[in-house]
Amino acid sequence: MKLLEEALKNIGDLDEISMKKAKERLDNLTKPRGSLGILEDLAVKMAGIKRELYPKIKNKVITIMAGDHGVVEEGVSAFPQEVTPQMILNFLSGGAGINVLARHAGAKIVCVDVGTAADVFHPDLIIKKVRRGTDNISRGPAMTREEAIKAIEVGIETAWNEIDKGADILGTGDMGIGNTTPSSAILAVYSDEPLEKLVGRGTGINDERLKLKIKAINRALEINQPDPNDPIGVLSKVGGLEIGAIAGCILGAASRRIPVVIDGFISTAGAIIAAKIEPLCTNYMIASHSSEEPGHKTMLKLLGLEPMLSMRMRLGEGTGAALAFNLVEAALKIISEMATFDEAGVSGQLE
Fold first, then answer.
1. 287 sits in which H/E element
2. 171, 178, 159, 1: which is closest to 83 by C-alpha?
3. Which fold has domain 61-331?
4. Catalytic site residues?
5. pTM of the prediction?
6. CATH of region 2-55+334-344
7. What CA–CA distance (Å, rounded) separates 29 from 32?
8. What is the DSSP letter of 121?
9. What is the DSSP track for 141-208?
10. Distinct helix (H) and strand (E) counts, the chain
11. Which residues constitute the catalytic centre (predicted)?
12. How is the chain split into domains, by residue range?
């Protein structure tokens, strides 16, 4: 609990003075005001996060949190649990989708075992196993409250370690067969929409498995009775270890005034937990894309975040965050490299 308490006390507001200066410069660049849309919003937000007009990004890191889920016993996934450790090794050998997109963005990948059911060994894997996967949420709590806090603190510690090494922007990623089920359960706690509108097909399950998935989530909510006013309790009852670590990564980044680019559905479930623990941490979140999972738009609306991309993606791993790094850098280059009317010797103001 000590790491969590330390992180929470250091999360504050954005720097309004830097944001005002950024807005003024953007309004005086050689273009119609607001014509670069979200790129301008990003530049202003980054100025507020970094407390400077011209922030730079030099070291990009994507943290992939991995954990397994007891609810796969209910037939909610198209893939067996054995795929989780296999994909971790794929990440670490450089062969996954996230590796390709991270290389393209010039980002480093950090993979953390928060709670896989199997033992995975690789020299580059960070092993912080809280427990061997969660229990089946359709039959009882996913984990204890103490384990939920430990998972969050794994994320905080990971974020701080990477920031201490020079990371100036983080992206969230996940790995865990079955993890759209607890993510949907978390969303259901905070949304008034019918469960059928929130739950998607994850890795591509058929109609029969989708019915099993909805049934399992309904049972999980009925049995565990998660209290929306107790986000750590929600995590412990219907969440996942990697989801908790993602929440911790966000809180850790926010406590050091480092922006964190949120990936898709699972990452945004972690973002909801983080925001319910400390609402100010949303100041440091950047939404990368809108996932194909039907509940993702609802998640982003709950957080008050607008995604930059809509690419029909549903892979997870941090792939959307890797793509979005390029847009964040583009926004910073606009404000620092584009000329103002005075600098360019252009008369008048474009409307």
1. strand 285-287
2. 178
3. Rossmann fold (3.40.50)
4. 317
5. 0.97
6. 1.10.1610.10
7. 8
8. -
9. -SS-HHHHHHHHHHHHHHHHHHHHTT--EEEEEEE-TTTHHHHHHHHHHH--S-HHHH---TTT--HH
10. 15, 6
11. 317 (proton acceptor)
12. 2-55+334-344, 61-331
